[in-house]
Structure formats: structure tokens, C-alpha cells
Amino acid sequence: MEANTAPAEPRLADEAAVEDPTLQAAAVDPTLLGELVGYLRQRRTELREEWAARITEADLLKVMSPEEIFTEVTAVYDNYVNALETGSVETLQAYARDLSERIIRRGVQTHEVLGIVLLLRDVLARALFVRYEHEPANVLNRVLDAYEPAANRIAVTVGVSFVQERERVIREQQAAIRQLSTPVLQLRDRLLILPIIGDLDSQRARQLTEQLLGAIRRNRAKVVVIDITGVGTIDLTVANHLVQTVAASRLMGASAIITGLSSGIAQTLVDLGVDLSMMQTVGDLQGGLEEAERLLGYKVVRDEDAVPRAIEPI
Amino acid sequence: MTVPILKQGGYLIASIQSALSDSEVLELRDSLAERVGTLRSQGIVIDVAALDVIDSFAARSLKTIAQTAKLRGADTVIVGIQPDVAVAMVQFRLDLSPVQTALDLEEALAILDERTKKGRANGR
After folding, report:
1. CB A51 within 8 A of CB A123
2. Which residues of A fall within a CB distance of 8 Å from B58?
3. What residue ranges define each of the domains in chain B, with the CATH number in brackets?
4. In this complex, is the C-beta atom of A217 within 8 Å of any C-beta atom belonging to chain B?
5. Is B79 in CB contact (< 8 Å) with chain A?
6. Which of A221, A232, B63, B111 could form a disulfide with A216 if both were Cys (CB 3.0 to 4.6 A apart)?
7. Which residues lie closer than 8 Å to A55 by C-beta, 6 or more apart?
8. How far is residue A186's CA from residue A183's CA, in Å, rounded to a whole number?
9. Cα Rg of chain A, angstroms
């Protein structure tokens, strides 16, 4: 295994913090570190058990069973001691990312991960105290000089890996929500409906405009019903964006009908002085669809002769 | 590049293929106004689908063409404005009203048919 070599891959900003010189294990007496690692390997079984016990005691990782905890504890322990020995955190980092990905989905929190790593650091430090208790004080000092920086660096690495992983998951979920949040549906030939649920920000409003105009061209739409029943509040930027969306649809040759303005939103729009002269608004979605059908020349007729069929029992 | 003008029944179809210089715009305006007279056309369709940009000059020119044609007795419909062009125009507050816009040629012809029918019904 290579020791203390700088990794060739480009580093992220957070990882630069790990490279802080005070955390470096560079100036350490290699024989002492070797001895220390040897000692920790020798007491692997009991220290692992102690660590696992302290995790359970501290009520951390409650979402995992004791067996799962012990498996992960073993893997982390070995990786940790290896990282102490070589000074290279790459393997540990890769493992921490992988572990984070698995446990984030089960709801493990940042404070738990940091707590666990600090617990291990504590367990190992106590073990070292016990081992060097009867040696002269300067030996214990030198052992701690060797151990502390490396342990700090490892703790930072694991914490940062977890947070990075969590941010990645959050970004993925944001992208998924953005995709889901603006469906454009075809209701009839040349009639599109765009239900908007949730508050709009300018990024979402822009995306909505893009999707709507794209759909107008794809489906050769003539009328678009934009339903904002699900929108709670609206501000000037978003209101203007809505007006612009209607104007752009107009330029593409489709007329837009806005439905479902709540009284609050209507009041806000008037208070803000948004120019609504070119917007066609209808109270609710049903009215909007009826108006759209009228524009397209559809006529919905209820067949009085049709006998309502009873739903057959299964 | 001169814009080709095609005759289709009672209508003229002008398809703009690339960005036009000022003089080409004037040329288009004049030849459309002239053809409306000679061919007794009732409607004009101007296809701008190939344009990546419609700036204030282009927008004003399209309006001028429509107004000139109107004075000569023909309605104008602009077709094929691209989605991003539409967004850009709205953001720069460019406006084509009162000129009618439509999605594509078929739609524009339907609009013109509707209008000329109404015109005849009103005894024009």
C-alpha cells in the first residue's frame, strides 16, 4: 500500500479542508506509529465490541439491528486502523461514501455519524492510555502526537464524506421533484392542461414556460388551460412570469386560459398592479375547460337515454 | 436573399428562410403589397419558423407589412414562432399585436378561411 502519496484525482473544496497541515500525520515517528497500529490490531476483537456497545449505549444508529452495527463496525474499524497506518484516507473515504449512501436512505442523521466516529476515536485513545500508562510521560505524549492528527483527519474525512453524500442525494431528489412538478397533459385534441401545484419560484416558472411552449409545438395545441388552484401564494416576479407565459403562448398561436385563482391570489394580483388585460381568467377548472371546448368548437352533450350501469360486484 | 412568395388559392405564402437585412424587409413589404393587388389575394401567411431571432426591427417590420397589406385588403397571419424566440420576444416586450399569430401553416389557413367567410357573410 502506498504511504502518504497525494491522490492524483482532482479534489473538491471540502476535501481541501482535510489537507489542512495541522491534521497531517507526516512528522510522525514511523516505528511508534507501527507499534501503535500493531497494538490496535492485536486488541481488535475487544475494542470493536466496546465500540459497538458504546454506540448502542449512546442510542445512536437506532434504525440498524445490532448485527448490522457490528458488521459495519468491523469494516470501519479495519479501515480506520489501515488509514492510521498508511496516512492515506482514500480507501476509508470510498468506504464512508458507500456506507453513507446505504444509511442515508434509512434516515441516519449527521450527528449520529459524527458521534460514532468520535466514539471510536475515544475508545482507541483510552486503549492507548491503558497501554502506555506505565511508560514515561514523554512516550505517551509522542504516542498521542502520532495518534491525534491522524484520528482528527479520519474523523473529518468520514464527516465530510457523509455530508457530501447527503448533499448529492438532496440534489437528486430536487431534480426529481422539478421533473414531476410541471406535467403538461393533453386533454383533447389541441387542448392542453397545465396543473400547477405548490408555490412557484422563478426557476420553476421558467421551466414551466419552457415545457409549456415545447408541448404547444409538439401537440399543435390551440388552447392551454393553466390551473393554479394548487398555488398558495404568488409574488410580483412570478405573476409577471405568468403574464409572459401567456403572451409567449399567444405568439406561438395558442390562447391561454388561467383558472382557479384563489381570492387571496386575485387580491394580490390587483394590489401588485399586474396588468391582466391580456389574460383570460375563469373561476375554476371546470369553467376553464368549458370555455376551452367552446373555443375549439366542441360541444359536450349528456346522453339522457344512456342508463347508468350498476357497478358489477366482484 | 429574396423571400419567395407563393400563391395558394386566394392567399399568399411568404416563407422567410434566413435573417433579413433592412432593404430585404422593405422589398418583401413592397412585393407583398403589389401581389395582393395583382392577384386579388385576401390573406397573407408569413412563415418565420427559420428565424432564430426576432428583434425589435423585425417585429416592427412584420407589423408594418401586416398594416400595409390590410390597407390593400388582405389579412396577415404570422406562423412558426419558435418557443425560445417567443420567450425572448416577451422578455424584451416585443409585441406583434394586432397581427394574428398561429402555430403552423395549416392553422393560419384555417384562420384566414374563417375570416374571409365572416367577411362575406357581412356583405363585404
Report:
1. yes
2. none
3. 5-121 (3.30.750.24)
4. yes
5. yes
6. A221
7. A61, A69, A73, A116, A119
8. 10
9. 32
Cα A134 to Cα A138, A140, A234, B37: the distances in Å are 11, 9, 71, 113
Q: What is the pLDDT of residues A14-66, one digit of tens each?
A: 444 444 444 444 455 677 778 888 888 888 888 888 888 888 888 887 788 88
Nearest-5° Cα angle at A256, A267 to A239: 35
Q: Where are the domains of chain A?
A: 13-176, 185-296
Contact B107 A209 (CB under 8 A): no
Phi then psi dihedrals of residue B25, to 5 deg: -65, -45
- Whether the Cβ atoms of residue A279 and residue A259 lie closer than 8 Å to each other: no
The pLDDT tens digits for A262-305 are: 888 888 888 888 877 778 888 889 999 999 999 999 888 888 77
Using a CB–CB cutoff of 8 Å, tell me whether B53 touches chain A: no
Contact with chain B for residue A189, Cβ under 8 A: no
* Beta carbons of A81 and A150 less than 8 angstroms apart: no
Domains A13-176 and A185-296 share a fold: no
CATH architecture of A185-296: 2-Layer Sandwich (3.30)
The answer to whether B104 faces chain A, any CB pair under 8 Å, is: yes
Q: How far apart are CA A98 and CA A79, in angstroms?
A: 13
Name the residue among A203, A224, A211 with its Cα closest to residue A183.
A211
Q: Which residues of chain B have a CB within 8 Å of the CB of A249?
A: 86
- Asked whether the ipTM of the predicted complex exceeds the cut of 0.85, the reply is no
Superfamily of domain A13-176: Globins (1.10.490.10)
Residue A38 CA to residue A244 CA, distance in Å, equals: 70
Is B103–A254 a contact, with Cβ atoms under 8 angstroms apart? Answer: yes
